[in-house]
Amino acid sequence: MLGTVKAQCLFVTVVSFSVVVSCMATDEALGNMEYDFYRSSCPQAETIVRTKMAWIYRQHRNVSAQLLRLFFHDCFIKGCDASVLLDDSNGNTNHSIEKQATPNKSLKGFDNIDQIKEELENACPGVVSCADVLALATRDGIILAGGPYYPVLTGRKDSTQSYFDEALEEIPRPDDNITHILHLFSSRGFSDRETVALLGAHNIGKIGCEFIESRLKNFTGTGQPDPALPVDLLNTMKLKCVDNANKAVSNGDSTQSSLSMSSGAVFDSHYYQNLMQGRGILFADQQLMADMRTAQVVATFASDNGTAFRMDFAQAMAKMSTLGVLTGSRVHSKSLSEAYSADNFQAVLSLVLICNEESSFSSQQAPVTEASVKASTRRYRQRETSPPTQTSHMRLNVGRSVPSSPATSSSDMSAFVSKIDEGRSPNFGDPIKQFQESDEE
User: Fold this and answer.
1) Of 217-221, 303-307, 321-325, 335-339, which range is least confident?
2) CA gyration radius, the chain
3) Is 390 exposed, middle or buried (0-12, 13-18, 19+ CB in 10 A)?
4) Which DSSP string do the residues of 331-347 spell out, in sequence order?
5) By C-alpha distance, which of 145, 184, 152, 151 is closest to 61?
6) pLDDT score recorded for residue 262
7) Taking a C-beta distance cutoff of 8 angstroms, is the pair 22, 350 a contact?
8) How many DSSP H helices and E strands does the chain contain?
9) What is the number of other CB atoms lying within 10 angstroms of the CB of residue 292?
10) DSSP per-residue string spanning 391-431
11) CA atoms in the 13 A half-sphere facing the CB of 302
12) What does the pLDDT look like over 251-297, one tens digit per residue?
């Protein structure tokens, strides 16, 4: 189905990353990539995404982790441009595409993006980009899985070019060492702390056995398991993967693609606590303890109920969603340090979270929500005088919610989905206004 909708995914312009970090950003910049970009052209767009995601989640709980991984693999290669969804490159079906690169062969969730895009096309043909659909659906999936809210700017354009070679070389691998991991993330503007926070996405979902097979059988070519694995964890991993694979072969199923281990189901600190105990499932995960810089962050995130991680994860995901977005010309034509600088990220978020009198939050106040971001953006547009240029006092409170697990019973799930459908996050005690509200104060 992607082949039928991808031609409809090429329409929306996005913000230029030349904006400086201040409240002096112009309305022209706001008119490119901003919060609630489709409020006029397709006002129901984000509601359609949210409602469809809630429906999909009820059928398939692992969709949150699948879309999160899909989104990461898209943004990590030339930016968040939906190039990972393409079935060809610039119309050339003979050109190798990102989907075919080894790190992407196990990606899932393409059909879910198709479903959401189809509903958007029925409501607003040719308006909402696939890149925005993936960014919004990923955020809503995180919320459905009990994760933190973060604002998503919209207005991305879609790529017509797919980047097979880059995907083959630049997607982090499950057996990467800490030096390579930090290099890949830092080249995209992520700090050590942000890198550790983003890898916390492994709090949820399943890890395919093919990604841990070498740790169980032939670690670094020794023909033996990874000696760093605790014996009980090694036995569990062997039971889940090796033993079950042998049973599958004996039953006539020679594939191992359906075998996996759960990495968790809650956005809390368990991932980091496991790393502290040497119980990371992926070698690359456990490598976070091999460097003092990242090990200290792991210890910080492991030390509470997940509050610190959730806030950092939300901010890192907001930053991830702005990587290399398409404008009239690709941002990645600049050097990586220019295209993925922290200042660029702050410039984009400044259009959403500041330029209003209430932008200085205390730690006791509620986190940024859909309603507060919308109100902040609205007040910015209504400014008749130049706002203050100082932004150093501002703090981003995205993700400051009390961790809670998603509802599990059928009755609770209905209430849970209702909250999402109404534009309210289940992780906040107070309701959040609907996206469809009037723009009146």
Assistant:
1) 335-339
2) 21
3) exposed
4) GGGS-HHHHT-HHHHHH
5) 145
6) 65
7) yes
8) 20, 2
9) 9
10) -TT----TT-S---PPP-SHHHHHHHHHHHHTT--TTSSS-
11) 18
12) 454 444 446 566 666 788 999 999 999 999 999 999 999 999 999 99
Which whole-number Å values give the CA distances from 109 to 137, 217, 366, in the listed order? 10, 30, 33
Are the beta carbons of 321 and 263 closer than 8 angstroms?
Answer: no
Q: Supply 418's token pair.
A: 């209702």
* pLDDT band, very low/low/confident/very high, at 50 (cuts 50, 70, 90): very high
Q: Which of 1, 23, 50 is nearest to 377 (CA)?
A: 23
- Residue whose C-alpha is closest to residue 199's, from 299, 309, 121: 309
Q: Tell me the pLDDT band of 410, cut-offs 50, 70 and 90.
A: very low
The confidence score (pLDDT) of residue 177 equals 96
CA angle 409, 411, 413 (to 5 degrees): 65
∠ at Cα 135 (301, 107), nearest 5°? 80
Match 């990495």 to its residue by tokens.
263
- Structure tokens that stand for 287 in this block: 């490598």
Residues tagged active-site: 73
Residue with tokens 């879609």: 158
pTM confidence score: 0.73
In the predicted structure, residue 79 carries a pLDDT above the cut 90: yes
